[in-house]
Here is the input.
Amino acid sequence: MSSLSVDHILGIKDLTKEDIELIFKTADNFKDVLNRPIKKVPSLRDITVANLFFENSTRTRLSFELAEKRLSADVINFSAASSSVKKGETLIDTVNNILAMKVDLVVMRHPNAGAAKFLAQNVKARIVNAGDGAHEHPTQALLDTFSIREKLGKVEGVKVLIVGDILHSRVALSNIFALQKLGAEVKLCGPPTLMPKHIESLGVEVEYDLRTGLEWCDVANMLRIQLERQEIKYFPSLREYTMMYGLDLKMLNSLSKEIVIMHPGPINRGVEISTDIADSEHAIILDQVENGVAIRMAVLYLLAEKMDRQK
Amino acid sequence: MRAKTIINQKQLELTLNRLCYQLIENHDTFENTVLIGMQPRGVHLSQVIHKRLQEITGNTEIQIGALDASFYRDDFRRRSTPIEVSGTTIDFLIENKRVVLIDDVLFSGRTLRAALDALMDFGRPSSVEYLVLIERRFSRELPIKADYIGQTIDSVVSERVDVQWKGDHGKVILTNIE
Here is the structure.
């Protein structure tokens, strides 16, 4: 009998390979549900989920909300912009007030690394980390690896190149953990200024030349340049970044093999990837979004399954 | 744990054949009828019946699917062990079809309740019938009855009834789990 080894989804680092495989197996079933005429199951109808977004999000937030609704959970939404956080309330107080309204599960995005873990230690609810600063974004990594598994039939042995702003990217870190746990090879590529120091200690290689990296990989995950997190200039200009690390169809066609292009969104068209690639059959960007709902349904379902009914 | 065979292979053979002919009596050529096996243990039975029906009627186009009702169960978060989710494969429309749901053992009736909910999310069948190989008496928790019954047996809660298959043939085992 299978069940998750954790009570919260804070990061991929805490999950075992078996956890990830259980999430994938459950997500397969939910993907099936999402293709039915009635895309909804009653599993979580006695659960209330709060989506707390202390940072902007479109995709993740909609994806979580849809996943919750497809599971018949009750959903409340909260965004920092229109809340008492602006009036000086602490995170624990804000969340405890929400929990006092009988909320069982909290999905949280926060600009500070470790916020999800802090919350899990201090409040009585199950927490799903929807991104904490530049730390982790576990559901994104799960849907990325799930999409690779779907496209290539496996994750083990697949060579994945993660390109771009590694320094500010929670997606990169979660992806590294997830890919390694599932037996994939990971290389990172980007300007030296955007490469974290000592990143090799995670067991990944660093490649500074995009073409060499692309020739090596089966899958290229093109990250967005997170200008909003860059307090200083890490490269001379976006134009120069695009010339060095942007991917266009000409470059893709000149490679000796076909590779799969992924992007966690939102895309800056013409910066990290060109428009013709984003819309080409090489890109599985929209499949990633579709799989996101199934993965988040699986995560919420498996967490709820472990929750104590008699509280 | 004591285990005994309550229906042997030869007896089960007769029962399976009878069930097939009962189905044919009501569904004739199966033109508008589909068979759906209930995950996990009803699926094999549905395939066995499907194969026999095709042999008897000569209609090789009888449609068959498998339905998993895990997400519709009423014991989610109420049971000691997690529910194992299996797959659903229904590659045809059930709208206005006559559906025969197939399971191996009818015990509490709760699995069928969940299956009916799950089935309705695929469309509105014109009718739904329920076939079970083994009906356990005195154990129903919901007002549910089967339309086609292989064998009815008397058993207590501390006993488990399993259908063991070897290809197209099987036998029914009663185990005391106390």
About this structure: The mean pLDDT of chain B is 92. The interface with chain A takes residues 68, 70-72, 76-78, 81-85, 87-88, 117-118, 120-123 of chain B (CB under 8 Å). Strands of chain B lie at 3-7, 33-38, 63-67, 98-106, 127-137, 148-154, 159-166, 169-176.
